[in-house]
Write a structure and sequence with these properties.
By secondary structure, the chain is mainly α. It is elongated, with a radius of gyration of 42 Å.
Length: 134
């Protein structure tokens, strides 16, 4: 056989296929395959799950939510959004109301970033007329 190949698309490639099957392989293939398959299906018994294996996903999910809650709580403490001094929420609301009602302008200027234009726009959107305001 000539093994010299021409690498052009119309070249002289060998005509035989590279896949071969031994002689007589498919003649008794079905009988050999049926002999290997058991007549009765094999039943595999799974071990019984323990209590922990049944409860474990729920415990992990509860731990996930508890961790998320604690993480957000710590972020609130760190950012100053949560009252950690022991004062009740009503006391904090009263303190904020006193600050606003006493017209503490430096405090309001430092912590509330609303311009006069924003206030006038909000009043106009609610239906107030300009002569009513002044």
């Amino acid at each position: 056989m000539d093994t010299k190949l021409n690498h052009s698309p119309e070249g002289n490639w060998p005509k035989r296929n590279g896949m071969t099957v031994p002689n007589g392989y498919f003649e008794d293939f079905t009988t050999k395959m049926m002999a290997k398959i058991p007549e009765e299906p094999v039943v595999i018994e799974l071990p019984k799950r323990t209590m922990w294996q049944r409860v474990k996903p729920y415990v992990y999910m509860a731990a996930l939510f508890a961790g998320a809650y604690l993480m957000l709580d710590i972020f609130n403490i760190a950012s100053g959004l949560r009252n950690t001094s022991g004062e009740s929420t009503v006391q904090m609301q009263n303190l904020l109301a006193d600050i606003v009602n006493t017209n503490n302008q430096p405090y309001l200027d430092d912590y509330i970033c609303i311009s006069d234009c924003d206030v006038l726009d909000a009043l106009f959107d609610e239906g107030y007329e300009i002569p009513e305001i002044y």
